[in-house]
Amino acid sequence: FVDFTSEGHTIEDPGARTPMVPSKPQPGTIINVPPMYRNEPKSTMIIAVAPPEGALAMQAGTYTMRAAVRNATEYIGYLDCHLIQPAPLTEERKAAIRASAVGAKSIRVELACSTCGTAWKAYAALERDDSAEALGYTWYTSLPQEARCNCGKFSADLGSMRSNLHGFLGSDMRAPMQFSLVPTYHRRALENVLKELIALLDSRPREEQVQQFLTDHPVILGQFGPQWLLPKAPILTMHCTDFALLNPKNELVLIEIERPTLKLMPKKGGPSAELLVPVRQLNDWFHEIDEHRAAVLACMKLAPADVTGVRGVVIAGRNEGYDKEHLQKLKKWDFGRKIEFLTYDDLISGFTSVIRNIGPD
């Protein structure tokens, strides 16, 4: 039996009076210790433990741990719980969440006293949800500071939930979670987006049409791992990107898209003059960032500390009609300054892999 206590707060499972013995011990479980080691006072053991299933640490702090073995109870260690402030739920953050094929668009949490049944139901989402509120869920920022039940046996500080519950939005739906998460997409919806993308590209659209489709369906850009996403991001007052995003490494990725019918290379290989136009455009943006970094980032509502580096991506043309060997060399061409070149078929392939990896609905 293990309980967790912090400044008068105790999280425990009254029914768990014996260590849990998993078939395959994993981090975060209580591992049964053979009796021969329990009786040896000079031995050293590492025991991985976890709060009882369903327990929540409602406050940051240091939680001490006690272990009850047979008739003896001893303190065996501590658990530090830290409160990490999530990114604000800005429009750019919402766009990044919508770009995740496996992310959650809503979270619902219920707390209740096990004695009198007094309950609190809260939710956070990309937008307010009338259906959730009709079921008794309270928008997270409207929660009281403290929850206290009618019988007086349960109380909890709701401050961190009231300010930070939105931090779970965008969480990977495939990860184990004790909260109720609502996915942003189901697989069938993603497959429909893929079909629409292919149909659009096959219709030989203008660049503006592709730009609007990607803006309306940011999940296609999810393969770049955006944590923050802004269409038409300004580069001071002179330039404007098609898309700008922050990847998991906090690199600012500037994306320049061109029409799907753009000529990629001549018959002898190498980049065409048309393809070099967006490459030069990206280099112009890099120059502006080098010269006026703080001002450029401020235009995007970013701080210099938010960005570890700058990269560029050019998306243009299709694979069909080119020598495969020449095309492969072109995709590995050194355009300088960390510029990556992709065709729209590469974009389709990447999105297809994302859908395949999420599994069935």
Task: Write up what this structure looks like.
The protein has 361 residues and is an alpha+beta fold. It has helices spanning 35-38, 91-98, 130-134, 159-164, 187-202, 207-216, 273-291, 293-299, 324-331, 344-357, and strands spanning 2-6, 9-11, 61-69, 72-81, 104-112, 119-125, 138-139, 146-148, 155-157, 180-183, 228-231, 234-235, 239-240, 243-246, 251-257, 309-315, 339-342. β14 and β15 (251-257) form a beta hairpin. α5 runs antiparallel to α10 (344-357) and α7 (273-291) crosses α8 (293-299). The protein is elongated. The chain starts with a strand and ends with a helix. Mean pLDDT is 84; it is low at 1-40.
Spans of at least 5 consecutive residues with low confidence: 1-40
Q: Which assembly state applies to the chains in this document?
A: single chain
Strands in their spatial order, largest beta sheet: 11-14-15-16-17
Radius of gyration (CA) equals: 26 Å
- Percent in helix: 25-40%
What is the first-to-last residue Cα distance? 38 Å
Number of helices: 10
Average pLDDT score = 84
> Tell me, what's the shape?
elongated
Find the count of extended strands (DSSP E, 2+ residues): 17
**SSE pattern:** EEHEEHEEHEEEHEHHEEEEEHHEHEH
| Class computed from helices, strands and strand pairing | alpha+beta
Largest sheet: 5 strands, mixed
Proportion of residues in extended strands: 15-25%
Set out the fold topology.
Layout: E1 2-6, E2 9-11, H1 35-38, E3 61-69, E4 72-81, H2 91-98, E5 104-112, E6 119-125, H3 130-134, E7 138-139, E8 146-148, E9 155-157, H4 159-164, E10 180-183, H5 187-202, H6 207-216, E11 228-231, E12 234-235, E13 239-240, E14 243-246, E15 251-257, H7 273-291, H8 293-299, E16 309-315, H9 324-331, E17 339-342, H10 344-357
Helix pairs in contact: 5-10, 7-8
